[in-house]
Amino acid sequence: xxxxxxxxxxxxxxxxxxxxxxxxxxxxxxxxxxxxxxxxxxxxxxxxxxxxxxxxxxxxxxxxxxxxxxxxxxxxxxxxxxxxxxxxxxxxxxxxxxxxxxxxxxxxxxxxxxxxxxxxxxxxxxxxxxxxxxxxxxxxxxxxxxxxxxxxxxxxxxxxxxxxxxxxxxxxxxxxxxxxxxxxxxxxxxxxxxxxxxxxxxxxxxxxxxxxxxxxxxxxxxxxxxxxxxxxxxxxxxxxxxxxxxxxxxxxxxxxxxxxxxxxxxxxxxxxxxxxxxxxxxxxxxxxxxxxxxxxxxxxxxxxxxxxxxxxxxxxxxxxxxxxxxxxxxxxxxxxxxxxxxxxxxxxxxxxxxxxxxxxxxxxxxxxxxxxxxxxxxxxxxxxxxxxxxxxxxxxxxxxxxxxxxxxxxxxxxxxxxxxxxxxxxxxxxxxxxxxxxxxxxxxxxxxxxxxxxxxxxxxxxxxxxxxxxxxxxxxxxxxxxxxxxxxxxxxxxxxxxxxxxxxxxxxxxxxxxxxxxxxxxxxxxxxxxxxxxxxxxxxxxxxxxxxxxxxxxxxxxxxxxxxxxxxxxxxxxxxxxxxxxxxxxxxxxxxxxxxxxxxxxxxxxxxxxxxxxxxxxxxxxxxxxxxxxxxxxxxxxxxxxxxxxxxxxxxxxxxxxxxxxxxxxxxxxxxxxxxxxxxxxxxxxxxxxxxxxxxxxxxxxxxxxxxxxxxxxxxxxxxxxxxxxxxxxxxxxxxxxxxxxxxxxxxxxxxxxxxxxxxxxxxxxxxxxxxxxxxxxxxxxxxxxxxxxxxxxx
Length: 795
Prior knowledge:
GO biological process, one term: carbohydrate metabolic process
InterPro entries: THDP-binding (IPR029061), Transketo_C/PFOR_II (IPR009014), Xul5P/Fru6P_PKetolase (IPR005593), Xul5P/Fru6P_PKetolase_C (IPR018969), Xul5P/Fru6P_PKetolase_CS (IPR019790), Xul5P/Fru6P_PKetolase_N (IPR018970), Xul5P/Fru6P_PKetolase_ThDP_BS (IPR019789)
GO molecular function: aldehyde-lyase activity; magnesium ion binding
Oligomer: single chain
Pfam family, one: XFP_N
Low-confidence stretches: 1-9
Distance between the termini: 68 Å
Domain Xylulose 5-phosphate/Fructose 6-phosphate phosphoketolase C-terminal: 589-790
CATH architecture of the largest domain: 3-Layer(aba) Sandwich
């Protein structure tokens, strides 16, 4: 829906009738909020409140809720007057009861959960379910209509808001930032979103910094700063700051309504200027609101002689002993009745607070944008085979695999100019994805200089040196129905790993909610991996995100380790088409050997794992003496090289080489839907032959995955063991005991057969390792036969 109002439309200040309606809606929301925290019965207080009416465990957060409800009421009035499409993101996620109350008052909660009716009985259900077993969480969680942001882990409200409005020109994301949240590193960095927002193409974010000067046990930094310093801080970020302060009523309603109208009109002026050709190209100064209200506004002012309202003591449950303390119980009843519920609900408990709530999909709790997007389109994808490496012989040709992916993503940009973006922390070219820059420049709204390359106001490739921003933008982008990829250096994916965790949790919970639309998957590409960060050193060598991923539910988790370019293309095509997953793809950007034709790669990736008969010498159904397994590009190289050494120097030893591209085939089918059947697992790994498994990440991950498989102790996993430095590529494998020579010795030590010549081969391997150590320190590069090694055909 396109707005039909103009920025100079006169939005009159609210008249007395509108102020009364705003205040009634706000009071109703706060009554419902307090009821959710405290009551298990007597929802409308039709009888004197007793201890039996109180929940046995009091959970929830009161302090931020009045401010959240206040802003929500006023934004709803703005929507009703203008038709503006809005979503509401509550950074103080503990204000969950306020947002649940809002959706109940708007009617969307009952539409989704019909048993929570809009009457006394439904109100009672609303209260009983909050923060109780079998009920709903205390946060603005995935169960809350209209939410795309939980806020349980603070710091991401603005990045989600900015991601939501990219390529979404008619959407306004109102993002309430708590002043406790404002102290987190991710939030501090996320104000820069306006440096990438194009008013001609994108929607707008209206930040509301809610300063109530208190977190759980003390003051907040911004809450205690002088107003002029706060103003200067955000003016320096490029915002026009509009300030509203107070607790007086109805004055606060008038002041905030005026501030909101002023901000909205500024936003519309900026957008219409950009969309009608009148824009001068300078980065706009977008508005933001600094709202100062007391913590726990309208709650108990004082309890037992101690100040509550306006202090940190109102953060959670201001009256925590109401079941045991009659005086506190009386204070609770007085508090709830101060909202005058008889004016807010009729005799049947139905809300009478009309006049503020917008209609239909314009209700923020019913916005299609917050439900996965309105008919979220699938990507237009060309046949990935057209980007394939032409291969004749495996293990001879070297290619930068991610460069082929860059060619594919270039065309995804061209074919999906409003529904796909790449998010990357200043590393698009470094990660060999630079072909996308021939389809779209990098986005940048600050000043442009003649020496800039592929940088423009119209660009849609997102680069900012912040994993938090990139990850969060993509989350907001996908949760509102669009598609994308977050590409970063492997080690620094751990900077935003907690965001990956939180997004996984969101998807896990959304799967059980039929009203939540399937959203495009969160696709994470890790390159510049542990094994090839030889020039950066130990700080850049860390494959930890794989292990983080494995701890999430199987319905959501996908981990892919393509060994070459053609496998990468097949995996990427699958991931870009998928929904409701977190897809982790790990492959290095450096030139690497190529093993499979595009048809072989497609079949291999579909199976998830397979035997490479050309690499081993246990043909067909022949039982091997040892299985050499691998997952990851460098482990695959070393495994194939080890198998070749064994073929050439000890041909009597029967080896089978198994490559795993989909890590989730290793668990049992009962543990993951991609898990190989017992028959297929046995066909690859046998039931009793030892397996030397060269793995990209920490060895414990594979042990975790094969738990429950036949004789899991026979899996001897070699992987990254936290040894690294600035060194050569092959020396990294030596330091972590995953080199071809280590794998050969492991194979000899664990083979079911002891063959003549095994001892001599062990001695030779140790000699080669010694020779490597001497050479690499003298010549500062790997041995020529290591650097130039290629697969030789079996004789």
